[in-house]
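lol ok so funny story. i was supposed to be doing the assay writeup but got distracted and ended up predicting the structure for this chain instead. priorities right. anyway since i did it might as well share w the group, maybe its usefull for someone
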Amino acid sequence: MLKDTRQYFFILDKKLQYFMPSDTKDKILKTTFLLLLEKGYDKVLVSDIQNELGISRGLLYRYFKGKDELVYTACKEYFYNRYFDGVDYDKISLKDFFEHAADAVIKITTMDGKNIDMLKYNTLYSAFIQGQPKFKSFVLLEFDKARKVIRNAIKKGEIKKLPENFVGATILAILGRTSYITSTPSREYVRGRILSDIQQFYELIKK
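and the output, tada:
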């Protein structure tokens, strides 16, 4: 006989690990991120993630210490790592960086066959920066990497001698836009405008 219910669930979780696929962690991160997009940063509960995946809280916490770590890891993965891992910021040209960013936008808006609203994506990004100092610190480090690409492009004569901050701020404005003149733009419109603006901006600043 089991001494209590907690012991039962501990054993159940241990058994479930043998049946869960090796990409369980990735599925948890993806499910968490999609729920964040759907409900908003402050409204997603651990129970929502459990119910969506059909797993117990105990199994969830075998991969992540708690909700804060799970949400942080999910946002880090789907805002940066998934799209920019492997980029050599010391060697990449600004043109290639722009093309990489454009490719990331396409992948984001069609995440594993799901249509993602870019406005919701950017709104979540802003909310998480404001609400999570740890994520904000991570983002600032990523910005430093992007500034290095801009700095190198200016030094090598790839682009005109423009203020580094101006180029960086314009890139952020293009990628992070959350509103338009039209009140309810479609996903396709937003994605198209971002991709078009990335290309047009590079054409304006290149030598």
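The longest strand covers residues 110-111. The chain has a mean pLDDT of 83.
back to the writeup now i swear
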